[in-house]
Amino acid sequence: MQRRYLLVASARLALLGVGVAVTGQALAQPSYTVSIQVLQQTVAQRFPLRYPVEGLLNLDLQAPRLGLLPAQNRLAAAMQVEAAGPALRRSYTGSFDVDFALRYEASDRSIRAHQLQFKNLQFPGLQPAAAELLNAYGPALAAQSLQEVVLDTLRPQDLALADTMGLQPGSITVTDKGLVVGFVNKPA
Q: Which top-level group of life is the source organism from (predicted)?
């Protein structure tokens, strides 16, 4: 009996050490928080990107500015785009906005963007015909640049305690402070 009490007490102390609250007799599920700064740094490593549209133009994308959308449980991304090439006759700078949900990929322990929603593409001063051409490529450009992009990768040590408890990453919740990765029981 005393041995069982010590094991339970040790487990609770271990959980407290990783930020898991013990309230009364119930244990809250552990979680892992990723700040917006970490997400921004990770995404910025993939940029700048260039997308040529054969014989017409090149689209150069700069690293997106990420924003948290807790009410929708999504992230927003605003990207600066430079368009230049024979179809435009000169260079134009514009921007486009998207938002997306998040998912966990167990094969590489990554948090990825998915369910991308294209919001708008703006090129101030661009002729209507050229703007129409660019808007036709906007959703594809957004999907190529951000769909399934890795926003963070959890390290083995981030998952070690949860793994020993039979848990794995489950829900990803966008909060005002960043992402909170919740853990759920591993399937039997």
A: Bacteria
User: What is the residue type of 108?
Assistant: D
pLDDT of residue 57: 81
Q: Identify the domain containing residue 37 by its residue range.
A: 2-185
Alpha-carbon distance of 89 to 43, in angstroms, equals 31
Q: How many domains would you assign to the chain?
A: 1
For residues 61 and 79, what is the distance between their CA atoms, to the nearest angstrom?
A: 7
Q: Find out whether 169 and 182 touch, Cβ atoms under 8 Å.
A: yes
What is the b/e burial string over 41-62, where b = at least 16 CB atoms within 10 angstroms of the residue's CB?
Answer: ebbeeeeebebebeeebebbbe
Q: Is a pLDDT exceeding 80 seen at residue 17?
A: no
User: Across the chain, which distance is largest between two alpha carbons, in Å?
Assistant: 82
Computed from CA positions of residues 63, 64, 65, 70, in that sequence, does the dihedral angle turn out positive or negative? negative
pLDDT per residue as tens digits for the range 49-72: 888 878 888 889 999 999 999 999
CATH of the domain at 155: 3.15.10.40
**Residue 135: is its pLDDT beyond 50?**
yes
Q: How many CA atoms does the CB half-sphere of 42 hold within 13 Å?
A: 17
